């Protein structure tokens, strides 16, 4: 089965975009855009690429991701299958957040349902039922009786104590990534270093960016910041995260990072810059794993990371063009190097 | 019974304000299956807002009915009108108010339950606190340097909370675990207590209020706990009374709301596919049985007095795949319908295989599992489980009866071949005859499926396929010729020359048709034609041999019984009968299950796949749900 998955991933990897493809896309005239996208294997995006409805674009991108994941999990069983299925569930957690926000603002069920991402075969929530909950408390109780009870339980208790939507979102995110790290554990043993590198780049990035945002954008105290991070054993283990959370400035935190991460942060002086650097490093790691002889599950996960980043960059181009943004701004939104450096 | 009832396409144009009543009128008859055939000019979806409002109301009514217990079946008042969009909006506001009142009462009940659990926990922890051997009054002193919290948090958060709290100079000590909750004492410097409180609120911490009494004397604490319990019980009674009052207060209004939601359902459901409009005009489109057209016209006229336009149209030949199938089955055949539908729904105009399926399935099951005793057990079990299985139990009852009938023919009862004389023959003693019969049955079955396919193709207007394809007349000629040729070689008949000629003629026609149908380069055309023609022969040959399993399983049944008898005979009296009983259970469960699946497999893959596309659309009419019907539905 791993031979099948390896072959499938190798075939899929031909769909990944190179920097010059984005340059071409940015310059493609509107009249030729649909054809260009269809040629690049994105017919779903080609239809209505110039639509004003950015949610529909987002939904089509996720739909493409789900379709490809469906193909990749076909030969998988056990922990590997569970992991990739759980990886898709972040879109559903995002639906949970949309539902909660909708209920907080008293949005009508029909409007709320329109904003949700269709999960197809991966959907586990009865969104019709949930959208018709009367308020956040009822919604949380219903969610707690469903497949995401583990993630929602603690979020509900925290929300009941604080009634702060930020706490709710943070608790849901943390619950999801804790679950991901937990499911990755057996694969780190079986698939080895390559899988661990991918998970490390993902969890380290999430923890560092969250730490900086919670600490300096939301001004939370260090202990609270630390509690909201994902338990980690990668480059930023829990002990290091505690030390970093206790520091008082972005600069101090960047200086205190381990060597492997500090090297990435040269010339970085704000949180978006940290995110972009970590994202670039994660993409490089995924690219190396994809083009190595790593176990099939690592390559499949690397492909999905790269593919999602590509599709989000395509989205940035389409939306940027639609809004009439200058090329430089579009590139910034994509975190792509400029043409000269590509 | 063998084909779908003729349907006609309708487009009902009318005032948008009367669309809900029109849908209700059509739903009363249960004859209208909505589909999208509105004129292109009607580009709006005016019923979408109606559906959204209806869904909200329906969801609230369902939740409230669930809370209020069962309500009686609704009776539709004569001339009842469907609610308008404004009615539904108004209803939604009322329902929201009722729901909030109920929710508050329900939340009150939940809070009381939580309080009861909390008191249970408190009582259990009290003993442990006593054993902590600390002066709680001193420890919990509000003016001390040390801030102390006693409470519970999720077990899986304890480690994380402990690590985070260490950053504030606080310590966590757990002293009890109940379910997924850990009870803990947290102590730290008072000047950082706000920080700790912020963290604890995120961690799902529940403070355990330690009453003053508990801080002084254990006996006083127990008295306090007993008083608290009494207070909670009183509140429980009050909440129950409040819920009963609410039920009484809103019951009539809720029944009225239920009726409105029921009356609004037809348009809300039709809105999914069949309602388009523009301005003040709406079109309901879809399918109704041809024989009920006049009846519908009369009902619409009586209700709307000419304020409508009904366009009725016969389905076109190229629309066959869009027309839903409405087949009427006699009640005795109904249990078999789900087995056919699990393969697919017949297309409109296609032969409906339910009747031959029922007979052939039972025949194959009986032939493969013929035993008076085992059949009787299946029959009795299915009858006993009737309440749980519903109509499906009849499949088991019929299969058991046919199994008993074949048991009589084979002379087999619980595997014993020497208790009753076979009325026909014992499979074990005539294996060749069984094999020949099974294959002959297969030939007859395949010929029947080819004939049915020819009919379906002709009705669908695919004459060339019906005549020249591998599953059409040419395929049938090849098959009959080949069967005749093989039978002649075996000495059963003496028709070798004409049989092979017919077979060659048939396969040549098939090859010619494949050649004509393949639009590709010469090489690919040769390859496709030769492979597909070869496949025709191989498939028909393999499908025929597949029926040998009927004989094989009838032999297998006897052989399994023999194996059990051999095992049983090697044991003492107790062991003997135990083995016989357990062995028969194994035969009934294991072999019975396998035979049931094999019979189904033969029907699906050797039968249905040849003539049954199974991609038809089921006729799903709008109906009034949960009300006593006054008009005969479809």
Write the layout of secondary structure elements.
The complex is a heterodimer of chains A (342) and B (634).
Chain A: H1 2-13, H2 19-27, H3 30-39, H4 43-46, H5 54-73, H6 78-104, H7 109-115, H8 127-131, H9 136-144, H10 149-162, H11 165-190, H12 193-217, H13 222-227, H14 238-245, H15 250-256, H16 259-262, H17 271-290, H18 296-322, H19 327-334
Helix pairs in contact in A: 1-18, 5-6, 5-18, 6-7, 6-9, 6-11, 9-10, 10-11, 11-12, 12-17, 17-18, 18-19
Chain B: E1 7-15, H1 19-29, E2 33-34, H2 48-68, E3 74-75, H3 85-131, H4 136-139, E4 146-154, H5 158-166, E5 171-178, E6 181-189, H6 193-202, E7 206-207, H7 212-216, H8 218-270, E8 275-278, E9 281-289, H9 293-304, E10 308-313, E11 324-325, H10 337-341, H11 354-368, H12 372-384, H13 386-389, H14 393-410, H15 431-459, H16 463-468, H17 473-489, H18 496-517, H19 522-546, H20 548-569, H21 573-611, E12 617-618, E13 627-628
Helix pairs in contact in B: 1-8, 1-9, 2-3, 2-8, 3-8, 11-14, 11-20, 11-21, 12-14, 15-17, 15-19, 15-20, 15-21, 17-18, 18-19, 20-21
Please characterize this protein's 3D structure.
The complex is a heterodimer of chains A (342) and B (634). Chain A is built from 19 helices and no strands. Chain A has 342 residues and is an all-alpha fold. The two termini of chain A are 37 Å apart. In chain B, the strands form four sheets. In chain B, strands 1, 2, 8, 9 and 10 form a five-stranded antiparallel β-sheet that branches. In chain B, strands 5-6-4-7 form a four-stranded antiparallel β-sheet, sandwiched between helices. Among the domains of chain B are: 1-42 and 273-326, Alpha-Beta Plaits, CATH 3.30.70.120; 48-114 and 223-270, no CATH class; 115-222, 2-Layer Sandwich (Alpha-Beta Plaits), CATH 3.30.70. The radius of gyration of chain B is 37 Å and the shape is extended. The A-B interface holds A 108-110, 128-129, 132, 134-135, 137-138, 153-154, 157-158, 161-162, 167, 170-171, 220-224, 226-228, 231, 238, 242, 245-246 and B 48, 51-52, 55-56, 59-60, 96, 99-100, 103, 107, 154, 157, 160-161, 163-168, 195-196, 198-199, 201-206.
């Amino acid at each position: 089965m791993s031979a099948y998955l390896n072959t499938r991933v190798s075939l899929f990897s031909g769909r990944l975009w190179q920097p010059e493809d984005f340059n071409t896309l940015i310059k493609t005239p509107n009249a030729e855009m649909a054809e260009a996208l269809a040629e690049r294997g994105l017919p779903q995006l080609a239809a209505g690429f110039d639509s004003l409805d950015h949610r529909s674009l987002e939904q089509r991108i996720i739909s493409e991701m789900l379709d490809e994941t469906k193909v990749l999990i076909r030969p998988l069983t056990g922990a590997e299958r569970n992991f990739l299925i759980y990886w898709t569930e972040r879109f559903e957690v995002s639906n949970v957040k949309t539902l909660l926000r909708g209920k907080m603002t008293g949005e009508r069920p029909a409007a709320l349902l329109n904003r949700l991402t269709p999960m197809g075969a991966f959907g586990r929530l009865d969104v019709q039922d949930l959208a018709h909950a009367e308020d956040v408390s009822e919604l949380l109780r219903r969610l707690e009786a469903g497949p995401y009870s583990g993630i929602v339980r603690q979020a509900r208790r925290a929300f009941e104590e604080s009634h702060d939507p930020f706490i709710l979102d943070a608790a849901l995110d943390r619950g999801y990534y804790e679950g991901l790290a937990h499911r990755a554990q057996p694969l780190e043993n079986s698939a080895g270093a390559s899988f661990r590198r991918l998970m490390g780049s993902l969890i380290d990035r999430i923890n560092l960016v969250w730490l900086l945002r919670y600490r300096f954008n939301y001004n939370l105290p260090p202990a609270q910041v630390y509690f909201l991070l994902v338990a980690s054993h990668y480059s930023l283990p829990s002990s290091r995260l505690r030390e970093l959370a206790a520091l008082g400035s972005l600069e101090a935190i960047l200086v205190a990072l381990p060597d492997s991460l500090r090297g990435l942060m040269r010339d970085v002086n704000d949180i978006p810059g940290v995110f972009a650097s970590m994202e670039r490093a994660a993409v490089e790691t995924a690219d190396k794993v994809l083009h190595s002889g790593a176990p099939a599950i690592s390559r499949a996960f690397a492909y999905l990371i790269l593919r999602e980043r590509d599709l989000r960059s395509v989205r940035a181009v389409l939306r940027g063009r639609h809004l009439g943004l200058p090329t430089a701004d579009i590139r910034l939104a994509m975190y792509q190097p400029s043409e000269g450096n590509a | 019974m063998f084909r779908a009832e003729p349907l006609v396409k309708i487009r009902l144009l009318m005032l948008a304000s009367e669309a809900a009543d029109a849908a209700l009128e059509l739903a009363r008859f249960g004859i209208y299956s909505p589909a999208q055939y509105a004129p292109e000019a009607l580009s709006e979806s005016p019923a979408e807002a109606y559906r959204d409002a209806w869904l909200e109301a329906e969801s609230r009514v369902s939740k409230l009915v669930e809370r209020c217990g069962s309500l009686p079946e609704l009776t539709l008042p004569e001339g009842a009108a469907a609610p308008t969009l404004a009615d539904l909006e108004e209803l939604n506001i009322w329902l929201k108010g009722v729901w909030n009142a109920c929710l508050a009462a329900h939340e009150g009940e939940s809070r009381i339950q939580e309080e009861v659990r909390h008191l249970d926990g408190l009582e259990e922890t009290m003993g442990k606190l006593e054993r902590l051997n600390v002066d709680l009054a001193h420890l919990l002193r509000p003016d001390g340097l040390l801030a102390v919290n006693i409470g519970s948090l999720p077990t899986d958060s304890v480690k994380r909370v402990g690590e985070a709290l260490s950053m504030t100079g606080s310590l966590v000590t757990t002293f009890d675990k109940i379910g997924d909750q850990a009870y803990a004492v947290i102590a730290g410097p008072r000047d950082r207590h706000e920080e700790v409180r912020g963290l604890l609120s995120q961690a799902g911490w529940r403070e355990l209020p330690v009453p003053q009494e508990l801080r002084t004397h254990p006996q006083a604490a127990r008295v306090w706990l007993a008083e608290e319990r009494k207070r909670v019980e009183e509140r429980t009674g009050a909440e129950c009374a409040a819920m009963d009052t609410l039920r009484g207060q809103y019951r009539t209004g809720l029944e009225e709301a239920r009726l409105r939601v029921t009356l609004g359902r037809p348009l809300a459901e039709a809105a999914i596919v069949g309602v388009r409009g523009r301005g003040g005009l709406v079109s309901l489109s879809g399918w109704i049985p041809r024989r009920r057209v006049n009846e519908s016209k009369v009902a619409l006229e009586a209700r709307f007095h000419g304020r409508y336009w009904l366009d009725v149209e016969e389905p076109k030949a190229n629309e066959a795949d869009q027309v839903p199938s409405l087949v009427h089955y006699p009640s005795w055949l109904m249990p078999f319908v789900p087995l056919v539908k699990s393969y697919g729904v017949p297309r409109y105009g296609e032969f409906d295989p339910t009747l031959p399926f029922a007979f052939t399935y039972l025949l194959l099951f009986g032939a493969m599992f013929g035993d008076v005793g085992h059949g009787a057990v299946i029959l009795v079990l299915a009858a006993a489980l009737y309440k749980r299985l519903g109509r499906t139990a009849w499949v088991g009852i019929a299969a058991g009866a046919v199994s008993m009938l074949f048991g009589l023919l084979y002379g087999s009862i619980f595997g014993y071949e020497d208790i009753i004389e076979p009325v026909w023959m014992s499979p074990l003693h005539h294996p060749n005859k069984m094999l020949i019969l099974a294959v002959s049955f297969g030939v007859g079955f395949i010929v029947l499926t080819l004939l049915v396919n020819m009919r379906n193709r002709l009705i669908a207007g695919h004459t060339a396929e019906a005549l020249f394809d591998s599953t059409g007349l040419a395929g049938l000629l090849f098959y009959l010729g080949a069967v005749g040729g093989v039978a002649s070689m075996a000495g059963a008949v003496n028709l070798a020359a004409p049989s092979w000629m017919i077979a060659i003629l048939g396969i040549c026609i098939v090859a010619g048709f494949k050649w004509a149908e393949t639009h590709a380069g010469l090489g690919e055309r040769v390859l496709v034609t030769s492979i597909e023609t070869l496949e025709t022969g191989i498939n028909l040959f393999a499908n025929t041999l597949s029926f040998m399993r009927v004989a094989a399983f009838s032999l297998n049944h006897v052989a399994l019984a023999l194996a059990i008898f051999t095992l049983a005979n090697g044991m003492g009296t107790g062991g003997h009968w135990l083995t016989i009983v357990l062995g028969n259970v194994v035969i009934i469960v294991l072999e019975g299950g396998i035979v049931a699946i094999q019979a189904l497999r033969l029907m699906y893959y050797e039968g249905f796949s040849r003539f049954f596309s199974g991609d038809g659309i089921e006729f799903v009419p709008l109906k009034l749900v949960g009300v006593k019907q006054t008009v005969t539905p479809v």
